C-alpha cells in the first residue's frame, strides 16, 4: 500500500472525518476518491499526472480543490461548501473544519492534502440512476436545457487572442485523445479504427478552422462545465442541476458552448437514448438560439466519445485480467460511437403548417425524437427578434406590436436564415410556423430546391371548436411562447390561403384530434422524405 492509499484508508476510519462514527463509504473514479460520511461527501484527488490533468503536487491539488468549489458553486452552491485541509499530527490524521488549523498540536502537524467538502444528496436523483431505474422523465430534459442555456449565458466569455477557443486550442485536446489512447492499447483492430477516426477529425478540423475562430469572436467560447454527462446531473427539489464541473484543466473547461452540450448528447447516444439526446438538444437550441453551432456538433460529438474511449484506455492500463478486458471493450464501444459521427447526413426541410391550436409544436415532438429533426419555432424566434424571452408576454394584439405584417416578414426571413444554417450543417429541420400564406410556403420550397433537399409540408389540423378550446386553455395558462388568442385564431381562419395542387403533392395531413400515430404515418412520410425510412442513426439529425 503506497502513501496515498494509506491516507485514503486513514480517512475512512470512523471518527476521522466529521460525522463518520457510523462508517465511511468509498466511491472511486479514475482521478479521485469520494468518501461518504453522514451528511457530507469528501473528495480527495489522486496524486496523478495523466497529461490532461496534473494533481501530482500538494499545491496543484489545493488549486484544483479551490477551482472545483468556485466552479460548482455556480450551479449548486448548496452542495459545494468548502475546501478543507488534511493534517498529519502526532495523534494521527486530522481533518480541519472550516477556519481551523491542525488543532492544539499544530507545531508537530504536517499539511498533507486537501478535501472538497460537499453536502450529500440522494444518489437516486442522479440522471444516470434515474435512467437505470426507468424513471428518467423526458420533460426533465426540457428543464435541464433551460438550466444549461441560462448557465452558459451567464458564464465568463473567452476573448480572441487569448489561450482559449481559437482553432489550434480547439484541436489540441482532440489530438491528445488519439495520442494517449495509442500509448495504451495494442489491439490492431482498435488501432486501425483509431487511425480512421483520427483522419476524419483532422480533416474536419481543417474544414472548420475558420468557423471555430468565428465562434470565439462571437462569444460562444465560455467557461463551461466541461463534463456534462448523466452522472453529473441530479434532480434536486424537482429541478435538474449540473455539478462536478471540470476543475483540473482550464483548456478543457473553457470551450465552445456546443461542445459542452455535445457531451450529454453523446452520453445519451452511448446509452441507446438518442431520442432523449435530440430532445435536450432541441430544447437547448430553442433557449440559446445557437443553431449555427450545429455545424461543429459532429466534430464535438466525436471528440466527446473519444474522451470516454480514452478513459477506458487509461483504466485498462491500471488494471489486469477481466477488469482490463472490460475497460478495453468500453474503449472500443466509444471509439465506434466516435466513428458513427462520420456518417453522411441526410438533410430535409419540413414545415409545420396550420392554425393556432392545431398541435404544430406539441404533436411534432415525437417526430423530432424519432427522426432526429431540429425544430425552429416562429413563436420563439419572433420574440428573440424583439429582445424578449420565449415566455414573455408582449401584449400585442392582432396586426399590432410583434404581429404586424412587417414583423411577420422579419420573422419568416429569420426562420429561413436559421433553416438554411440547420440544413447546411447536415440536419433535417422542421420550421414551426402557421404558414397560412402561399408565398410563405413557396419561399421555403424555393430554399429546399436551392439546397437540393426534400421539402415536406406537415399540415396539422383539427375541428375548429377543438382549436378554440386549446387556444383558450393555452392563453389562460400563459406559459407557452405563443400569444395567440381567439381573436388571432378568428383572423387566421379568415385570411389563410389553401394549399394548391403542387403543394398538396408534398403534403402529409396530420389529424390532431388525438395524438398522431407517427409509426402509422411513417410510410406516407417516407414517400415524401425517403431518408425518414432509413435505419436509426445515433446522431441527432442523422
Write structural notes for this entry.
- Residues 138-296 form the Aminoglycoside phosphotransferase domain.
- It comes from Thauera terpenica 58Eu.
- The chain is an alpha/beta fold and 542 residues long.
- It folds into three domains: 3-120; 127-340, Aminoglycoside phosphotransferase (APH), C-terminal lobe (Aminoglycoside 3'-phosphotransferase, Chain: A, domain 2); 349-533, Rossmann fold (3-Layer(aba) Sandwich).
- 46% of the residues lie in helices and 15% in strands.
- It contains 19 helices and 15 strands.
- The protein has helices spanning 3-11, 58-72, 127-132, 139-154, 167-182, 188-217, 250-253, 257-270, 274-288, 297-317, 321-340, 365-371, 378-385, 405-424, 438-451, 464-477, 486-495, 501-504, 522-528, and strands at 25-28, 32-37, 40-45, 80-89, 92-95, 110-119, 221-223, 233-236, 239-242, 254-256, 349-353, 374-377, 429-432, 455-461, 507-511.
- A hairpin with a 2-residue loop joins strand 2 (32-37) and strand 3 (40-45).
- The two termini are 50 Å apart.
Please tag this protein with its features.
six-stranded antiparallel beta sheet, alpha/beta, elongated, 542 residues, Aminoglycoside 3'-phosphotransferase, Chain: A, domain 2, 3 domains, five-stranded parallel beta sheet, Rossmann fold
What layout of secondary structure does this protein have?
Layout (H helix, E strand, L loop, with lengths): L2 H9 L13 E4 L3 E6 L2 E6 L12 H15 L7 E10 L2 E4 L14 E10 L7 H6 L6 H16 L12 H16 L5 H30 L3 E3 L9 E4 L2 E4 L7 H4 E3 H14 L3 H15 L8 H21 L3 H20 L8 E5 L11 H7 L2 E4 H8 L19 H20 L4 E4 L5 H14 L3 E7 L2 H14 L8 H10 L5 H4 L2 E5 L10 H7 L14
Parallel strand pairs: 11-13, 11-14, 12-13, 14-15
Antiparallel strand pairs: 1-2, 2-3, 3-6, 4-5, 4-6, 7-10, 8-9
